[in-house]
Amino acid sequence: MRVAALVGAVWVFLLLFAGQAAAHPLGELSVNHASALRVSPDAVRVLFVADLAEVPSVPALATIDGRGRPAYGAEHCATYAAALELSLDGERVPLAVTGSTVFVLPGNEGLRTVRLECRLSTSDTLAVAGHRLDYADHAERDRVGWREVTAVGDRTRLTGSTVPRRSATDLLARYPDGDPERVDTASFGVEAGGGAAAEQVPAAPTAGDAGYAGLPAVLGVLLAAALGAGHALTPGHGKTLMALYLTGTRGSLRDAVVVGASVTATHTIGVFVLAALVSVSALTAPDAVYPWLGLGHGTLIALLGVALLIRARRRHGHGHGHGHGHGHAHGHGNRRFGGLVGFGIAGGLVPSPSALLVLLGAQATGRSAYGVVFVLAYGVGMAVCLSAVGWLLARGGDRLAGADGRLGWVGRNLPVLAPVVIVGSGVFLAVRSIPALSG
């Protein structure tokens, strides 16, 4: 018992350490915006900040390394300015770029991150006192990440403002815990008078950790396997659905291994494909792919659930008849194997952003082979955990079938009840991805 407790404690430690090592404050795919408005009697000035996490920084850095920071800043600030809508009494007022600064900062796993600060302004002859201003950030609205807007009066008073005066993140330098804020609009009236306001200066952003790329190889591989196992236990990988599938088909340990291995193979291939596309800048917005993968994930699960339900109803209608020949059994075995692999592929369609991050980080530090080994170890840990959980829960379903009362009824009818739950869950997962697609 002491040995088991020690192993469990070490395993928990590895999972916690692994989870912290690869974590960006809002995720490795996030693109975060902050807009600080400073309203003077004759002009509106906007300090717009875009903070790119590790993965979206990869294609940005390719442009910066090739064309230089000034060219990148001028071009992207102009793009952002066109997507920022400032209106005076309902009529749009253009924002011109007056300056830009590009920062390249150390991120997690040996990668770098990009922070762009754009200084924008209206003309110096815009009379705003006695009028109403509205502001909206329409840039990159389909990207995940933090969004905030602040507004302060400079020798003016802002009335009925819908946004605070000061940034909760020091303009994306430090992110608070909790869910990301999504404020991209502001509205307020402007009155003459009031004191002068100091220009808000962003705080120095915090750097990321060294991550796995700086760890000894053996320790890094062990942590990769632990992180893969922990990833398998997080919501979204269909462990319960996999257990229901195995229970509904009276699954064995072999079946659990087939599903777990299929999930892992699909998941690992997806990580390599995404990393390749990001590295060659063919995929500048990898987070936009995930909703489509989620839609496919849910749709395939629902279809497999329908097929399983049809098969269960047919078997129930035939009363588990006898006298089936060898050819029929052979065909049934092929269909079963195909169903197990199909369910595994559906479960592994959404690759882990953490594994993607580490693979890109290893490439960036010239340790591509290490990154490949890491992802493979990550997959092995996930496969072992998924197979074990699926088999244990399926065995629990067998024991449930032998119970008395309502529990026994549920256990005996799981071959029909399980596909119904699988279909409903697949539909839910697919529908949940639709709002992100319409972004």
Automatic annotation (TrEMBL):
GO CC, any one term: plasma membrane
Citing just one GO molecular function, the answer is:
nickel cation transmembrane transporter activity
Q: Which UniProt keywords apply?
A: Membrane, Signal, Transmembrane, Transmembrane helix
Tell me the protein's name.
Urease accessory protein UreH-like transmembrane domain-containing protein
Q: Which PANTHER family match?
A: NICKEL/COBALT EFFLUX SYSTEM RCNA (PTHR40659), NICKEL_COBALT EFFLUX SYSTEM RCNA (PTHR40659:SF1)
Q: Which GO biological process entries does UniProt record here? A: cobalt ion transport; response to cobalt ion; response to nickel cation
The record lists the membrane-crossing segments as 212-235, 256-283, 289-310, 340-362, 368-393, 414-434
A Pfam family matched in the record: DsbD_2
The residue range of the signal peptide is: 1-23
- Matching InterPro entries, A to Z? NiCoT_RcnA, UreH-like_TM_dom
Q: Taking every annotated instance into account, which residue ranges of this chain make up the domain Urease accessory protein UreH-like transmembrane?
A: 268-400
